[in-house]
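2024-03-11 09:14:02 DEBUG pipeline.ingest accepted 1 chain
2024-03-11 09:14:02 DEBUG pipeline.ingest length=192
2024-03-11 09:14:03 DEBUG pipeline.predict start
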Amino acid sequence: MQFVGKNPKDIYTQTVKDIKRTDFGVGVDRDSVKRSFTRGEHHRHRSSFSRALNAQGGAKVSFCDVPDQFTKIDDKVFLQVKEEDMHLFYRKKTMKLAVKAGLHTIICDGVHGFHPSELGRKAQLYGLHAVCGDAQAKPFAYAVTINKLTATYLKVFQNIASRLEKYGADINQLNVVLGYETAAHNAAEQFG
């Protein structure tokens, strides 16, 4: 938690500076983003930062030590699997709804650059998105891993498949779209 114990005003000021340096892509003007963030609303944003920081009570989070308050959303368990090399996050209700809505495709890809530095260079946030019926892909599970090994991807796939089967999905009928990670492809081949 990079903000625990920090001054909310300093965090707000740093956020404004970050907005000034961020490239939001074609057609998005940094100054307009900054104005939207700061115009007449800055006290509300600073208060939001302050409330959020104070609500954590100085809690420290690490990969090995995740306080209970960070394992749930709306009092429902979100951190479902916690192992030494991988954490798997999803809501059971979301899985059930995806199966009920006709889940037919899972799209998987990792983000390798935006993770806590304590996890090292090989860490990643791995997202799994569900496609049901004619709908767009919607996120339904996340894995934070400390490596990109075939064995780790295999654990992710096995856990997700097990849960989906429990809710009535026919795993053999699902399409799976993977990113470029060779280890993920190797794991998928081993899985089925």
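2024-03-11 09:14:41 DEBUG pipeline.report The chain is about 40% helix and 20% strand.
2024-03-11 09:14:41 DEBUG pipeline.predict end
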